[in-house]
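Why do we care about 3D structure at all? Because function follows from shape, and shape follows, mostly, from sequence. That is the central idea of this module. The next example makes it concrete: a single protein chain, its amino acid sequence, and then its structure expressed as tokens.
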Amino acid sequence: MIDYIRLEVRRTLRDKGFVIFGIGMPVLMYLLLTNLVGDTGKDAGAWKVTAMVGMASYGALGAALGTGNGVAEDKKLGWLRQLRITPLSPARVVVGRGLSASVTVLPAIVVVLLLGALVNGVQLSAAQWAGLVVLLWLGTTPFTLLGLGNGYRLSTQAAGMVNAGSMMVLAIIGGLWFPAAVFPGWLQEISRWTPSNRFADLGWSVTAGHGPSAGTILVLVAWLAVFGAYAVYAYRRAARTA
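And the structure:
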């Protein structure tokens, strides 16, 4: 399974589309939001921290969901059929693909955080920087499962469209681009229950100097169970028809 994970990681990192949209887009948006249209008053420093976490979360979210696009392409090319005749069990195939995705989300997180420190002068303790990376990395798991489910369940074109649409909706409603505090009251309430908002809250809690709330963890665990069940269901259907 280790060889399989290495193969998938290399395939993803060689994909120009992943580099441009998975890493380049969050970086560009962070620089634009904080240096062109960001706050210019006394809250500018706080906005740079908030936007840094939001854009790192957005990049990780896109990379995690994008895993499903590769799965859909593999299914189209018959790669899933080939995997079925290898010694890898179905569970190991799913776990291996999920672990490879967990590696490929790291560049989007780390690059945005580096820009926050080196370009925008964000200052956090070493423990906070480490906590940001670890929590955002672990927090992508539900989105990886959602992307895998879409990849196993849908065609290549449909998976790409659904994953892109999911990324946009989750990013906007979750408050990754602009603070949820500026939303109308009813939309703020919806935002609180989205996995993307609670995912970013993992990072915002670290920058605020405390750990994630119990509510944030419970909401993420609930979405993890939902998306995990969906991924298992989708894989079983794909395996029967591959």
